[in-house]
Amino acid sequence: MKHPPEPFKIKVVEPIKQTTREEREAVIRKAGFNLFNVSAEDIFIDLLTDSGTSAMSDNQWAGIMKGDESYAGSRNWFHFYDVVRDIFGFPEIIPTHQGRVAENLLFSETLKNGGIVPNNNHFDTTRANIECNGGEALDLVIDEGKDPVINHPFKGNLDPTKLNDLIEKYGVENIPLGMITITNNSGGGQPVAMQNIREISEILHQNGIPFFIDACRFAENAYFIKQREADYAEKSILEIVQEMFSYADGCTMSAKKDGLVNMGGFIALNDSDLARSIRENLIRIEGFPTYGGLSGRDLEAIARGLREVLDEHYLEFRIGQVERLAEMLNELGVPILLPPGGHAVYLDARRFLPEMSQSQFPAQALAVALYREGGIRGVEIGGLMFGKTDPETGKEIYPDLELVRLAIPRRVYTNMQMHFVAEVIDKIFKNRDAIRGLKIVEQAAVLRHFTVRLEEV
After folding, report:
1. Across 194-198, 283-287, 450-454, which has the greatest mean pLDDT?
2. Residue 389 predicted with pLDDT over 90
3. CA 164 to CA 423: how far, in whole Å?
4. Over 90: is that where the pLDDT of 308 sits?
């Protein structure tokens, strides 16, 4: 079926509150036009993120009741280790309480002398952790990945030519590691081809550069490979995943995405010396190496979630739900990033609001309009999140894309609720001339989009 039904039954429901337009107007003004500052109680459909917002299965909840909260060597740790080892293949496995801690632990060890870290596109916390540890994060996604309209099966690919040029320009000694993010969140949740993973691995390894994968949405990426690369049509999702990671030296993982849990992550790698250094730091800031800031029940839920996410029926519905929302919007003429990615639909704010300057943060303005009209919370991925100041000129540098990400939590919302989202966006699009731009009145030096306060222009 093109759009399969939900492969699950609903056993527990949570009521959600619908507010009036007047109530939402007061809320968004009090929040400084920043949706991160809005209480979840005042949100009707929350598409801010798919991270940590999944609905866990009865199997996972049953596993929570088997949590062993021993400080060291709990039985859940051994189950967690066996599952991660089997799926990802790396012998050194270090649990953390979420992905950004895994990133910080990795970069605090590998960037002690600074250096360049290439990626297809770094996400916000990855970039921040690299820069705060003295490194420079450079994006080398293929040019098609910067075009919101062009249809390309793997717009998340890292450009091999750009990578070779970067190595020649900066020198191997200044590149402590290379990365690929799967799927490519900042570029619209776009997948990376197995052929590209293999080619980037070869380039990095030929130059003696370790290769790491940001594995947050590894199963979704594997599903796209199965659908779009002919050589993998008959392979299982697990077989595809195992091959993907066989080309890498390690990975960071936020289990809050494709681990189907609300908290947790890990680093997995081959290098035992690097793992030893990371564990020493882990003990200082997170916890003992067999729990890493997590409870035993968290480890058990992750282990079970990592198995569940490999189910092809689940992935077919998961990615199909995203695709259906994208189709509805496309049929209504709403400008979106094409093709749709694995976890989210991205509204193209520059085409949605063509008369609005990037200096007025059109993607954030569109996100505000979405909340005002329907109580729907998305997130801006554009000039507010990724804009930066040129140190020489003092001018603001804006990214190529101005997007509003509508990230769909896993197993949470029904297709009827997605129809409601499409109807609200259609109404906004027909009245888009009423949307006003924004200006910053207060911001932090790092990751400003989380706490920024704005005013309408």
Report:
1. 194-198
2. no
3. 46
4. yes
Across the chain, mean pLDDT equals: 94
Which residue type, as a one-letter code, is found at position 161? T
Q: Which of 158, 202, 163, 148 is nearest to 183 (CA)?
A: 158
What's the count of helices (H) and strands (E) in the chain, helices before strands? 16, 16
Mean local confidence (pLDDT), 230-236: 96
Taking a C-beta distance cutoff of 8 angstroms, is the pair 148, 335 a contact?
yes
Check: CB of residue 160 under 8 Å from CB of residue 203.
Answer: yes
Average the pLDDT over 293-304 and give the result.
96
* Residues paired with 118 in a beta bridge: 138
* Partners of 211 in beta bridges: 178
Q: Which structure tokens are listed for 294?
A: 């997590």
Q: Kind and range of the H or E element at 270?
A: none
In the predicted model, what is the mean pLDDT of residues 191-202? 98
**C-alpha triplet 251, 253, 255: angle, nearest 5°:** 155
Q: DSSP class of residue 184?
A: B
Please count the other Cβ atoms lying within 10 Å of the Cβ belonging to residue 69: 10
Longest dimension (CA), the chain: 61
3-state secondary structure 190-245: ECCCHHHHHHHHHHHHHCCCCEEEECCCHHHHHHHHHHHCHHHCCCCHHHHHHHHH
Q: How far apart are CA 443 and CA 223, in angstroms?
A: 39
Length of the chain: 457
Residue 336: phi and psi, rounded to 5, are -130, 165
Where does the pLDDT of residue 1 fall: very low under 50, low under 70, confident under 90, or very high at 90 and above?
Answer: confident
Total Cβ atoms within 10 A of residue 368:
26
Contact between 29 and 441 under an 8 Å Cβ cutoff? The reply is no
pTM over 0.90: yes
109, 278 contact by CB (below 8 A): yes
Sequence-separated (6 or more) residues with CB below 8 Å from residue 35: 28, 48, 367, 368, 371, 377, 378, 379
Domains, the chain = 21-50+311-456 (3.90.1150.10), 58-308 (3.40.640.10)
Each residue of 85-143: pLDDT tens digit? 999 999 999 999 998 999 999 999 999 989 999 999 998 889 989 999 999 999 999 99
Query: Can you tell me which residue has the tokens 């793997």?
Result: 154
Say if CB 187 and CB 209 are below 8 A apart: no
Encoding tokens for residue 319?
A: 């990615």
Reported as half-sphere exposure (CB side, CA atoms, 13 A), residue 409 has a value of 21
Integer Cα distance of 136 and 129 in angstroms: 10
